[in-house]
Design a protein that fits this description.
Blueprint lengths: L1 H17 L10 E4 L3 H19 L3 H21 L1 E4 L3 E5 L1 H10 L5 E2 L5 E12 L2 E12 L2 E6 L3 H10 L10 H9 L3 H10 L5 H16 L5 H23 L3 H14 L4 H18 L2 H17 L4 H14 L2 H14 L4 H13 L3 H13 L4 H19 L1 H37 L5 H28 L10
Helix pairs in contact: 2-3, 8-10, 9-10, 10-11, 11-12, 11-13, 12-13, 13-14, 14-15, 15-16, 16-17, 17-18, 18-19
Length: 471
């Protein structure tokens, strides 16, 4: 079933590319832009309308409220990221108006994508289930598209876009979403077919599988059936894990490991589950178990460089950097042309402050890049860190920029908290002392101004400074 979904997605991409010369681009998938910026603008205009009401500017206050509560939501709903099988682009009124000035309407072709990073945020924990929110960033040629989870459109975008991108450009979580994301109905159907909902049924099936393994009189057909069932359990376990149903995922992994206990890839995926559980529950013992499982997976990986790379990335997430570096070097010996392993080694060297190693790994990665987009990315990174290593003044400028960026982020968070507290006190204080209400509104206005300034400051400071030309 999983292979058929991948084939369908690739066929859709191929069909779209074949129609580029004969007709308009086909919209294979589209997803709304994350509404964070629009919500911030609506909140700011709502606050401005309150200040205008206090200043007895009723007409302007009404205009501000209408724009905040009606115009901005319409703009947010119509602003979408579209994939037509060949490139990504934004479609909507805001990209149409700002495109000529800020390049928001520019397209990013699939071959020009440099990397895809996905972050997971835990939003709710209830029993053995965790609610995850995924945020995927697609970066290339100075452009960045951000899509956030929250519905069928996000899953369709991933299933359509990610199979068309080279594996070297995807981080570990993006690869998991590409391989295992599915619709809730499909997940519920798989869980029902394998009887994971009932603990009693689970125990009976586990004992039955154990009896089959211990029996010496099994035929080839029975063994093939067990292996097929174990593969289904493995796929279901990964789907349950990325959906946040960690307890059911652990049961599925346990049953799959009974049948195939020597599978290094399965042990690695089980280690990633333990790491997710440790993060959700704040349990250090589970984190140690995750590290132990990943070590065992590295022993069972044998001569598989792709699996070793996945194990190394998981170990970095678990905090075992030294073992991860050894595993990456082992994978590089097995596959000297691995681009992704060199990037991981460069990131580890950067965390250790070894700029010379960072430059070396990025230059080697550029020489072994499988396509132009990756070569441009690796060469740009190597040139940047080489300039940091050679130019003391440029290094100081970049350090100051990063320090200012950290301060701006702190100011933004603090200003948001002060604004919320000041507005709450301003709404309650008229019943106590009107003078205090005026002071609270003044403090809220000041903090809002600081919050807006910090937002623009972080946008400006996020960009690397261009080095000055040599004399």
């Amino acid at each position: 079933m999983e292979d058929s979904r991948k084939v369908d997605a690739l066929k859709a991409v191929a069909e779209a590319r074949s129609r580029e010369r004969t007709g308009p681009a086909l919209r294979l998938a589209s997803v709304r832009v994350p509404p964070g910026g629009y919500m911030a603008a609506a909140s700011f205009l709502t606050f401005v309308s309150v200040l205008l009401l206090r200043a007895q500017r009723d007409k302007w206050a009404l205009v501000s409220v209408v724009v905040a509560w009606f115009a901005i939501p319409v703009l947010a709903l119509t602003d979408r990221i579209v994939f037509d099988g060949h490139s990504l682009y934004r479609r909507g009124l805001i990209p149409f108006l700002t495109g000529p000035f800020f390049g928001t309407g520019a397209r990013l072709r699939v071959e020009d994508i440099e990397r895809v990073d996905t972050n997971a945020v835990r939003t709710l924990r209830r029993g053995g289930a965790v609610r995850y929110r995924y945020r995927t960033q697609i970066i290339g040629r100075g452009r960045m598209f951000v899509v956030a989870s929250g519905g069928k459109s996000y899953r369709r975008m991933l299933l359509t876009l990610l199979p068309a991108i080279r594996n070297e450009k995807l981080d570990a979580r993006s690869q998991e979403l590409r391989d295992f994301v599915c619709e809730p109905r499909e997940l519920a159907r798989g869980t029902s077919e394998l009887h994971l909902a009932s603990t009693v049924v689970l125990d009976n099936l586990v004992s039955t599988a154990q009896q089959r393994i211990n029996s010496r009189q099994r035929g080839t057909e029975t063994q093939a059936g067990d292996l097929k069932r174990a593969q289904r359990l493995r796929t279901l376990a990964n789907r349950l894990r990325i959906s946040g149903r960690l307890r059911e995922s652990a049961e599925a992994f346990r049953r799959a490991l009974i049948v195939t206990p020597e599978d290094g890839g399965l042990i690695c995926e089980f280690g990633r589950l333990l790491r997710s559980q440790a993060s959700a529950m704040g349990d250090a013992r589970l984190l140690n178990r995750a590290r132990a499982a990943l070590r065992l997976a590295s022993w069972r990986a044998r001569e598989d460089p792709g699996l070793l790379r996945s194990i190394g990335e998981s170990l970095v997430e678990c905090g075992d950097v030294r073992l991860a570096e050894r595993i990456f070097n082992r994978a590089l010996e097995l596959e000297p042309g691995s681009f992704r392993v060199r990037l991981e080694l460069a990131n580890l060297a950067l965390s250790n402050g070894k700029l010379a190693h960072v430059i070396l790994h990025y230059r080697d990665a550029a020489d072994h890049a499988p396509d132009k987009g990756l070569a441009v990315y690796a060469r740009r990174e190597s040139d940047y860190y080489a300039r940091l290593n050679d130019d003391e003044d440029y290094l100081n400028i970049e350090l100051r920029r990063l320090n200012w960026l950290q301060h701006a982020n702190r100011v933004r968070r603090m200003a948001a908290r002060v604004t919320n507290a000041s507005i709450l006190l301003a709404l309650l204080s008229p019943y106590i002392d009107p003078t205090v209400a005026g002071l609270c509104w003044s403090l809220a206005a000041t903090s809002v101004f600081a919050w807006v300034s910090a937002i623009f400051g972080t946008r400006l400071l996020a960009e690397r400074r261009k080095p000055r030309p040599a004399d």
